[in-house]
Amino acid sequence: MLHFILHDYPVVGSTNDEAKTLLAQGAGEGTIVCAQRQTAGRGRRGRQWMSPEGNLYLSLILTPRCLLSQASQLSFVIAVAVGQAILPFLTSPHLLSYKWPNDILVEKKKVAGILIETESQGGQLADACVVGIGLNLALVPPNMPYPVTALGDHSSSAVLKEMIFPALLDHLKEAYQLWTDKGFAPIREQWLQRAHGLGQTLAITVGNREYRGEFMDLSPEGALLLKNEEGTIQRLMSAEIL
Ligand code: BTN
Fold this sequence. Notes:
This protein has 242 residues and is an alpha+beta fold. The protein has helices at 15-24, 73-86, 161-182, 185-192, and strands at 5-12, 31-38, 56-62, 96-99, 103-106, 109-119, 128-135, 201-206, 209-218, 224-227, 233-236, 240-241.
């Protein structure tokens, strides 16, 4: 069972970097770094994560002792936990969906993102993962290359960090426990119930190449199964849905 130790800062560069520093100093599983704002918040693919005061930024150290190839399943574990935490605040549960591999959408617009950075001593095991979560509570970052939103815009009242934070921790604990006890299958099921674009034709990029194909399923390991125009099913572990 996860036990949380919270480090709360007014401002940091990046909570992921702060968590990595604590990890190097011996901090263990359950260590959480959160901040009111970040000056160097990072997203996936080296993107900037705008982090003004008013939204939620946290990083969690996990030591799942899984294979490196399984560490990417944590994205789905965390997405499901974030989804469960925000669900009670939404005016309708139908607004929530999960975009492969690790975005949380409300009304098809990104409300939260997950950045997982895995440390390994070599070999095939993931020694530690720093799981970063950015959740737009009140502020919508401007000029983003994809549609974005904030939870407060889909809630009947303002959503304060103090309101959602304890629920998020509970759901993180529960989803992580489910994954470590029962494996990926039950998380996969929950994620698929709200999968964005399932059964639809999607445009995706893999490196510099753009593909189109039908999102058929999520593999038992978490890969995106995409049927191309020739009917061949591609199994993608790393790609971006446009
Ligand atoms: C993404 O969707 O690209 C992932 C965004 C992750 C942002 C969070 S905010 C808390 C943590 N600290 C960071 O620098 N990044 C993550």
